[in-house]
Design goal:
Largest sheet: 8 strands, parallel
Oligomer: single chain
Structural class: alpha/beta
Strand order of the largest sheet: 7-6-5-4-3-2-1-8
CATH class of the largest domain: Alpha Beta
Number of strands: 20
Helix content: 25-40%
Number of domains: 3
Bound molecules: 2'-monophosphoadenosine-5'-diphosphate
Distance between the termini: 27 Å
Shape: elongated
CATH architecture of the largest domain: Alpha-Beta Barrel
Radius of gyration: 26 Å
Length: about 475
């Protein structure tokens, strides 16, 4: 069940939010702690107006809520709500209100016994969850906040150990925890929470539309194949939209999830644990990932930048689809002979693909980078010249300038790696960043009359090839011009 957490300041606003999302969700959680005065509301009428299963929650500040008043008042309010036959009432692990428990059970309301930890995944989480589940008929709920890749792995391992507990809700908050929210059915949680983004119920909650329209969380089951993208940051990536839509068009039982990763080793353990079938790789792991894969496709031997990893039996094989993704939009807009001298800004993993792509079509390439040593190393490998990124005057000599750093990517929309550079009219200017669609770098180029190319086409083309590597199927045609 997908549960929308209602966090508005008035019950009218909560009901309006419910109406706007009714089609997408299965149930709601009413957060009494957000309301100005929950005592003034008639619970019976609210229950009637909900018309779908609901949870009553009155969350204290220490547990991540807003309530800071006395326990006596909280107890009075919860008692009032316990008599109206809501489907569930959330009572924290350390809350002992026997009259409320009795009243709830007498009125057909199930108790969700909850535990929250905002600082990490405690080592004794398994025993905590077993304790939560020990009350007769009570549903255990544990919401913890994994702080890194090793803690999200630990959380999945604990979830695996408590398979015997039937009625439970276990979730990881924050970006590291997101996979638990999407895979809630696979891990045996009875529900997953979502909220409207500007009023998030807990860190990392998705909105109902993304839950359904991007991830299709209700369709995910024990057999669903898992794909994803690893990076840091990764939440900005549009790849989940591209891949999940394609799985749906191809009628595949598969899901593609963003994995925030701060340690590749822990991610590979998680990948084996979750039986992940393949994943995309983005900043800053395109080069480092090579140390972890078992096999390399031929293009990786020279490019040494890998954006696609697929599992064949027990072996991980890496590919690069950025090269083709980069070249296609460039060559469909420009004749091969219309540019010779190419400048590449940046010398990281993304730059490697661009540099080798341009070399593969016989172009003369120069690398401009902030750290000159990194530029030198890549230049020597690829057979190019290199310069400091501050050598703006030199850039006038180039027919094509490609921007490969993450500078200018949302939320740094006003940044450019070449502040003060005035592009030449007729210069071809390509930014591989796609959020925003038009970066400051491209806007500056446009003002000077340059020919501009944004990163969205590259994203799509590399993603299409990646889909085919992942699934060994042709990419299903887009039904219409699909936007991200
Ligand atoms: P990716 O896989 O996206 O290429 P990366 O390997 O971490 O990520 O490389 C990031 C690139 O962006 C590098 O060229 C980096 O320059 P340095 O080599 O000097 O670190 C460049 N970069 C990142 N932030 C930058 C900034 N503020 N100004 C200029 N270049 C920047």
């Amino acid at each position: 069940m997908i549960c929308l957490t209602l966090m508005e300041l008035s019950i009218e606003a909560d009901l309006q939010l419910l109406e706007q999302n009714r089609e997408l969700i299965d149930m709601v959680e009413l957060r009494l702690d957000m309301l100005t005065d929950p005592m003034l509301i008639h619970p019976d009428i609210v229950k009637l107006k909900f018309g779908i299963p609901s949870i009553i929650t009155y969350r204290k500040k220490v547990d991540g809520g807003k309530y800071q008043g006395s326990e006596t008042y909280r107890r009075t309010v919860l008692y009032k709500y316990s008599k109206s036959g809501f489907d569930y009432i959330d009572l924290e692990m350390d809350t002992s209100f026997p009259e409320i428990e009795k009243s709830a059970l007498d009125n057909g309301t199930k108790i969700i016994r909850s535990y929250h930890n905002f600082s990490g995944v405690p080592d004794n989480l398994e025993s905590i969850i077993r304790q939560l589940a020990s009350g007769p008929g009570e549903i255990a709920k544990a919401a913890v906040f994994p702080q890194n890749s090793s803690e999200i792995l630990q959380l999945f391992e604990i979830i695996n150990k408590i398979k015997d507990i039937e009625d439970k809700i276990v979730l990881g908050m924050g970006d590291f925890g997101l996979p638990t929210r999407i895979l809630y059915k696979k891990i045996g949680s009875i529900l997953t929470f979502c909220s409207i983004s500007d009023n998030s119920g807990a860190p990392g909650q998705l909105n109902p539309e993304d839950m359904i329209n991007i991830y299709g969380v209700n369709r995910i089951n024990k057999n669903t194949s898992i794909y994803g993208i690893i990076g840091n940051p990764v939440m900005h990536s549009k790849s989940p939209i591209l891949h999940n839509r394609a799985y749906r068009r191809a009628k595949m039982d598969a899901v593609y999830i963003p994995f925030l990763v701060d340690n590749i080793d822990s991610f590979f353990k998680l990948a084996l644990f979750l039986n992940i079938s393949g994943f995309s790789v983005t900043v800053p792991y395109k080069v480092d990932i090579l140390n972890y894969i078992d096999e390399r496709s031929p293009e990786l031997e020279s490019i040494k930048s890998c954006n696609t990893v697929v599992r064949n039996d027990q072996l991980w094989k890496g590919f690069n689809t950025d090269l083709k993704g980069f070249l296609k939009p460039l060559l469909s807009l420009n004749n091969l002979s219309s540019f010779e001298k190419c400048a590449v800004i940046g010398a990281g993993g993304a730059s490697r693909s661009v540099v080798f792509a341009l070399k593969s079509i016989g172009k003369e390439v120069s690398i401009f980078n902030r750290s000159i040593n990194k530029a030198k190393k890549l230049a020597e490998e690829a057979g190019c010249s290199y310069f400091p990124i501050t050598s703006l005057d030199l850039l006038y000599n180039f027919d094509l300038i490609v921007q490969t750093t993450s500078v200018g990517m949302t939320p740094e929309d006003d940044e450019t790696p070449l502040p003060g550079y005035k592009f030449k009219s007729g210069q071809i200017v390509y930014d591989i960043v796609y959020t925003p669609l038009k970066t400051k770098f491209l806007k500056d180029a446009e003002i000077s009359g340059a020919i501009t190319i944004g990163g969205m086409e590259m994203l799509k083309i590399q993603g299409i090839e990646q889909f085919e590597i992942f699934t060994k199927q042709f990419f299903p045609q887009e039904e219409q011009k699909e936007n991200f």
